[in-house]
């Protein structure tokens, strides 16, 4: 961390909002006007809409993340977690990856810590579930699913096989529907390489407490997405929830009970709980309360945006809904970050703040290779697209939205190669314990067992 006489703009979180806001500030700032410091426990930003495709092996995991130090060469990037904010002293406490926590003074603050998986106290969930918020989880899921195929192929125990080949996904929004679509596609593809695992041996189950899936694309396309997944053999249970999953024994409210080694939790997100220690005004669901100018209510030097903020939806409000809030998605996060960056510069220079207002442009979702749904808003019309065309739109949109040309090119190269070469179906689960084999080799060897003399061997047999 540098000590500097210049004012410090502290950006807490280097995700969508943090990365784009820092880039915008650095672009608009005069040379030496301020120090921009980005603090994040990870050294990279994750493009979350690509996590399902990374889980399916269509994109290399490294191409889904953007190294912060490379894309923000003029910023000070610190690896650590901001744990508290002292507003009176304008000081943040940072817990680095290693070592003692330290204090970091700031003049302007951007709160962009995003969201975490929203969970409930369901017996067994913490031990058995896996989320879908980070690249680690996405690749962990891929390895785990392929490992289940290896396990099922290696045993004749019917109960073990059935448990290994049953996959339960809880939550049918964007993240859940896309993840089950991609993973089911990949697993059934992979099954063709096994002798004793058939495509139809696998059971995929999607559960949601709501009465529909993919609410983001509207009821008609959501219904199409459901029918489409069902036509591929996915069992979908709506208006029900998971009561427990102790030791992988899944019990649903509707009475269904199955044993499963794979429970994927994609039932929504909640604002980062660390916000509770920041002393900022929070809304009823724990978001930082901001004005339409993205300034935290009651402050003139703190801004917030993205999944951790409740930002008024001015388009909805002008249309007569006084309670309209921006939904937590990348479409808003990206655009809010740019307005926020401009407002930080204006705030620093004493100029007026800009209002954030954005009309929904629609949504695209991929459901596996060549399958998808899309809803595009053009003026007053909503254009609905499904199937292969929607899938191309999904790829085109997200491919171009991926930050930096370096990553865009790598993603398009991954997709192009996948058109000619078959999908990788290797499980590298052992990467999670890379030292295990070496440890076994380096352990002191047990004393050698003396060979028995020939005569004794004959007696023993
Ligand atoms: C699987 C999945 C698929 C999605 N698909 C779509 C889609 O198709 N379309 C769409 O519009 N949206 C999609 N989204 C939502 C979109 O990705 C989010 O809305 C967006 O990432 C929000 O950006 P953010 O900056 O608020 O949070 P994030 O991008 O999550 O960034 C938050 C950052 O804060 C850091 N952080 C956390 N705690 C601390 C701390 N204490 N101190 C410092 N840093 C901290 C985190 O490490 C992270 O880097 C998807 C999300 C998921 C999970």
UniProtKB/TrEMBL annotation:
<keyword id="KW-0520">NAD</keyword>
<protein>
    <submittedName>
        <fullName>NADH dehydrogenase</fullName>
    </submittedName>
</protein>
<dbReference type="InterPro" id="IPR036188">
    <property type="entry name" value="FAD/NAD-bd_sf"/>
</dbReference>
<keyword id="KW-0560">Oxidoreductase</keyword>
<feature type="region of interest" description="Disordered">
    <location>
        <begin position="439"/>
        <end position="461"/>
    </location>
</feature>
<dbReference type="InterPro" id="IPR045024">
    <property type="entry name" value="NDH-2"/>
</dbReference>
<keyword id="KW-0285">Flavoprotein</keyword>
<feature type="domain" description="FAD/NAD(P)-binding">
    <location>
        <begin position="8"/>
        <end position="315"/>
    </location>
</feature>
<keyword id="KW-0274">FAD</keyword>
<feature type="compositionally biased region" description="Low complexity">
    <location>
        <begin position="441"/>
        <end position="452"/>
    </location>
</feature>
<dbReference type="Pfam" id="PF07992">
    <property type="entry name" value="Pyr_redox_2"/>
</dbReference>
<dbReference type="InterPro" id="IPR023753">
    <property type="entry name" value="FAD/NAD-binding_dom"/>
</dbReference>
<comment type="similarity">
    <text>Belongs to the NADH dehydrogenase family.</text>
</comment>
